[in-house]
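pasting for ref
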Amino acid sequence: MSTDATTYSSPLRATANDGRVALVTGGGTGIGRATALELSATGARVVICGRREAPLLATAAEIEGAGGSCLALPADVREAEQVEAVVSAALERYGAIDVLVNNAGGQFTAPAEELTDNGWRAVGRLALDATWTVTRTVATRSMIPRREGLIVFVGFSPLRGIPGFAHACAIRAAVANLASGLALEWSRHGIRSVCVAPGTIRTEGLEQYGSETVANWERAVPLGRLGSPQEVAGLVAFLATPAGSYITGTTIVIDGGVDAWGLAEAPPR
């Protein structure tokens, strides 16, 4: 049975994340938006950032309309000074950041031989370099001094190469290994680090790939459907609760069985 924004009801208690403060990058749309809403619905106070102000304000209004607390901050996380400003504003408002969700990212499809250096760098700068800048800043300014925290990285499924996405697959694999490496180093500070690897999720971002491509991806899912942002958000919110407190250093796949099945199509000729 599928779930979406109109039918979704959180399985977590409304107090499951009481007292926590969460920062979600790319929090105005898609998985980031759903995650911010779910964290708020389970008791967390939420900070969201992204490059476009309008969707951030709409998400914040929805959270506050439901009785939650949300700080929306337009920012480009590729710029270190803007990351510092976001973290400073979050700490000034709420005093701490307990949960960081590194959701900001983007990619495009292209044959590997047609990838330019600029194209490669553009994806890497956002999905890997900016992710590290946000992670380091939050960790050093809040999590390490307070000796607690959860860092969630967003990866890719299937956990292998995908035709047309050599660049994105390589960079997201680096993110997954960053998650496990930090778990080993920062466990001594009480910090957990987990990579969540969604498969194809039905968000507005799918429109760029065209209906035929998306339909092909859907046919490759053993469960027979695409995932919803709410399903990914529910996993992230669970990880933030005490029930998730022994989970660290791993990648959790949420893809309807795609990674287990493989690409289920002939290789490009």
